[in-house]
Design brief:
54% helix; two-stranded parallel ribbon; single chain; 7 helices; mainly alpha; globular; 3% strand
């Protein structure tokens, strides 16, 4: 069983053929970053570099700064939702955002309202 099994969205992620699991090769780099960010964030940053990713989706503010200093283009999940709305990949983000909040994702009210304004909702 994988960590996160049974959490909201886990079955959709497991079933999505477009999501590929990859392991980080440079464990030393992960350990170096681990002093500044959590292990998962460190692995995401290193893996993005190893894969030559165009974009890294990461929300933790410290991890975002570290990723940017490592040359990664970074966006948070809320920015990704706004982008999806503008590209007409989703009709509304408010229901998605409300569902995220109900499952434990934290967004303060001012940021919540700003996201909805940027999405035109």
């Amino acid at each position: 069983m994988h960590k996160g099994a049974g959490r909201p969205g886990s079955s959709q992620v497991a079933a999505a053929r477009w999501i590929l699991r990859r392991s980080v090769r440079d464990k030393t780099f992960v350990e170096r970053l681990g002093g500044r960010v959590g292990r998962g964030e460190a692995e995401a940053i290193v893996l993005a570099k190893e894969l030559g990713a165009d974009l890294l989706v990461i929300d933790d503010a410290t991890a975002r700064r570290v990723a940017e200093t490592e040359g990664q283009f970074v966006v948070g999940l809320l920015g990704l939702l706004i982008h999806a709305k503008h590209r007409k990949l989703v009709v509304q983000i408010k229901p998605l955002l409300d569902e995220m909040l109900a499952s434990g994702f934290f967004v303060d009210d001012a940021h919540y309202q700003a996201v909805l304004r940027r999405a035109g909702e």
